Amino acid sequence: MSSAKITLAALPRPPLAVTSTLSFIILALLIAAGRWGTTDPLENPLPIFLWVFWWVIFTTIQALTGNLWPALNPWTGPLALLRRITRLPLGNRPILTLPASLGHFPAIALFFCFAWFELVSLAPEDPPGLTLVVGAYWLFTLVAMILFGEEAWNARGEPFAIYFRMIGMLAPIHRNDAGKMPAENTGKAGSSTHVTWPGQYCLESGTPPLGAAILILLSLGTASFDGFSETFTWLGFIGVNPLDFPGRSGVMSENTIGLLIAPFLLGGLYLAAVAGGAWLAGERSSKGMVELACRLVYSILPIAVAFHAAHYLTLMLVNGQYLLAILSDPFGLGWNLFGTAHWHVTTSFLTNLDGARKVWIAQTVIIVIGHCIGILLAHMLALRHFNTGRRAALSQIFLALAMVFYTVFGLWLLSTPSAG
Hints:
Blueprint: E1 6-8, H1 16-36, H2 45-65, H3 69-72, H4 76-86, H5 105-119, H6 127-148, H7 150-156, H8 159-168, E2 173-175, E3 193-195, H9 200-204, H10 210-228, H11 232-237, H12 252-280, H13 286-296, H14 301-311, H15 313-328, H16 353-386, H17 389-395, H18 397-415
Antiparallel strand pairs: 1-3, 2-3
Helix pairs in contact: 1-2, 1-4, 1-6, 2-14, 2-15, 5-10, 6-7, 10-12, 10-13, 10-14, 12-13, 12-18, 14-16, 16-17, 16-18
């Protein structure tokens, strides 16, 4: 993979405190709508914006544009405002030290809680309940940044800062200031933008910490269980008639256990494949194997993004239409700001064979492209680790087989009958 880059003209960017403050204002309005607006999750902007725009569309976009989260997170701006008001170094100078022994455990634990809330809890789209969860998480993170420092908490405690940063490394578009902390980025011109091969910056970056690697495997494992938990296979395994699905309340315990087990199974498959390949390539030290496993996790990123995009494609196509309507009348006051308030939401493209075939083909193409990039990236990473083509090729035998297996598994999930 060539390191050729096309450098674009440097353009001024607004300070991160400004864009973050705007993001916080939007979040505050969404929370207000969730608290006082309609309780219909398909008409209230909070659940539609969170689950469709932020978690599906925004995550996918960052694999193309680079990490946007430093500019759009809802904490940098409020912290800057608090510093100005109180004249205290809130967030810049830690009050407490985040113990190094914890590693990335806070981020891993918080991401699992997020996945449980999304995939297992009874009503993740209920506007009043979602208001409490989103508001509590915003406040919790703000306090954590004040106590441990914004930089330290973003590096090891805030799961989405870590997740989006690593997803953004896949992007063919890269900014020189993309890795800087908010306090370092003033928004002035001079931070050039480059266009290069997808995943190029994964090759140029150092080995990620073990905790960050675990977080990526956790994200893929939880997304995989999301698809698997709706299949007739899983429901039959836990003794539930898929044709008489009892709803989330009837499978909470089983799905919680499944959500815990899935990342361990996927992580175990990945580690076994990497360790077996490393042994074939002549790597005998456990330290070298762990380093290789952490470095090769970059090759899992395109697979995770592809599965994320393919799995949620139908959600985006259907609920995205509700989002268009809500944008014109976010508070249900009879507005029609963009002329889409009366948009007729349709699912007709999913109820006929031709439409369903096109959607499935699109999902298949997304998954195959992601896996092809992952396999290529894994080989390039292995070349840099072993320095010889033969050892690199040997090290990839089991990992390539694991990736092919997961490709087949992903396509099976998209085609098998499901309920719920």
